[in-house]
Amino acid sequence: AMKINQDTVLQGKKVALVPYTAAHVPRYHEWMQSEELQRLTASEPLSLEQEYEMQRSWRDNADKCTFIVLDAARWPGQVEESSMVGDVNLFLTNTEDPTVGEIEIMIAEPSYRGRGFGKEATLLMMGYGVRNLGITKFEAKIGQENKASICMFKKLHFKEVAVNSVFQEVTLRLNVSDQERGWLLEQTDHVEEKSYTELKQPAGVLDT
C-alpha cells in the first residue's frame, strides 16, 4: 500500500514536515542514543541496522503516519540531516474506530525546545489528520514527568482524561467538534502542502 504521505511536505512558518526516509535514519539513531529521549519516548535503544528496519516497517505500515520535523529556516536550502529537529507521528491503531488518531511529538534537538517548534509541528499534523485522514478524535499519551509536553497539548485544547500510574502516563484527548475543526483549520491556514520529490535537492548541489 502506498503511504498517503510518502511525497508530502507540510511547510509551516517554523517547521517543515517531510516523510521519514532512510536518509534520516543515522541522525534519528544518534538522537535515540540519548537516555533522556529513551525515557521520554519510553523506547529501547536500537542498533543502526534495527533503526533502518524500523524506518522501513513504518514506511510500509498503513496504521502509522510519520513526518520528520525540519527547521523551516534551514530547509529547503541546507542538507536535510542537519536541519532535523524531531519527528511527529500519528497512529491509527483503533480498529473499531478509524477516526481516532494517537499523536506523538518529539523535539529531539534540545536547542529547539520551548520555542514553539513542537506546537507548530503538532498543529500541522493535526490539520493533516483532519483534512486528509478523516480524524475526528486525537489522543496523546505522555509520561507524567514530561510537564512541558502535557502543558503544550492542553494549550492545543486537549483535556486530560486518564492517568495510568503503572506506566506513569497521562492520556489527553481532543474531540474535533465543528468549533474545534474551525479553530484548527484557522491555526493551520498558512500551511502549504508540497511535493517532497520536487523540493528535495540532489545531494552535492548546495555544498559547492
UniProtKB/TrEMBL annotation:
Gene3D superfamilies: 3.40.630.30. Its EC number is 2.3.1.308. It is an enzyme of class 2 (transferase). GO terms for molecular function: tubulin N-terminal-methionine acetyltransferase activity. Keywords: Acyltransferase, Transferase. Residues 15-159 form the N-acetyltransferase domain. Pfam families: Acetyltransf_3. The keyword Transferase applies. It catalyses: N-terminal L-methionyl-[tubulin] + acetyl-CoA = N-terminal N(alpha)-acetyl-L-methionyl-[tubulin] + CoA + H(+). Belongs to the acetyltransferase family. GNAT subfamily. N-acetyltransferase that mediates the acetylation of the N-terminal residues of alpha- and beta-tubulin. This is Alpha/beta-tubulin-N-acetyltransferase 9. It comes from Menura novaehollandiae (superb lyrebird). The lineage of its organism: Eukaryota, Metazoa, Chordata, Craniata, Vertebrata.
